[in-house]
């Protein structure tokens, strides 16, 4: 992925939240809005500088489709997408 996409899973590489996974829920010029459904909610997403994030190759299709179409998503969907992403990453690392 060359640029960030709505619904993609990213990893924070800087700050006190270094290593945390987030779902991209909004895009700006130099920042992206991210949520994890547990500490950062859709009501007030965290704004992260693009240079402080690393993309994964994981995209939650359901969340991406709903965000693009302007449909509602909830924090539970975000949380479950991150849980699934953690399982995928763990399988990739440890087989």
Features:
SH3 type barrels; 95 residues; globular; alpha+beta; 2 helices; 31% helix; single chain; 5 strands; five-stranded antiparallel beta sheet
Outline:
The chain is an alpha+beta fold.
The CATH topology: SH3 type barrels
In round numbers, the mean pLDDT is 95
Structural class: alpha+beta
Beta percentage is 25-35%
- The geometry reads as globular
Global Rg: 12 Å
Question: What are the segments in which pLDDT stays under 50 over at least 5 consecutive residues?
Answer: none
The CATH class, by name, is Mainly Beta
Distance between the termini: 23 Å
The total strand number stands at 5
Q: What do you see in this structure?
A:
With 95 residues, the protein is an alpha+beta fold. The chain is built from 2 helices and 5 strands; from the N terminus they run E-E-E-E-E-H-H. It has a single domain (8-94), classed as Roll (SH3 type barrels). It has helices spanning 61-69, 75-94, and strands at residues 8-12, 21-27, 31-35, 46-49, 53-59. Strand 2 and strand 3 (31-35) form a beta hairpin. The longest helix has 20 residues, at 75-94. The radius of gyration is 12 Å and the shape is globular. The two termini are 23 Å apart. The model has no long low-confidence stretch (mean pLDDT 95).
Topology:
Blueprint: E1 8-12, E2 21-27, E3 31-35, E4 46-49, E5 53-59, H1 61-69, H2 75-94
Antiparallel strand pairs: 1-2, 1-5, 2-3, 3-4
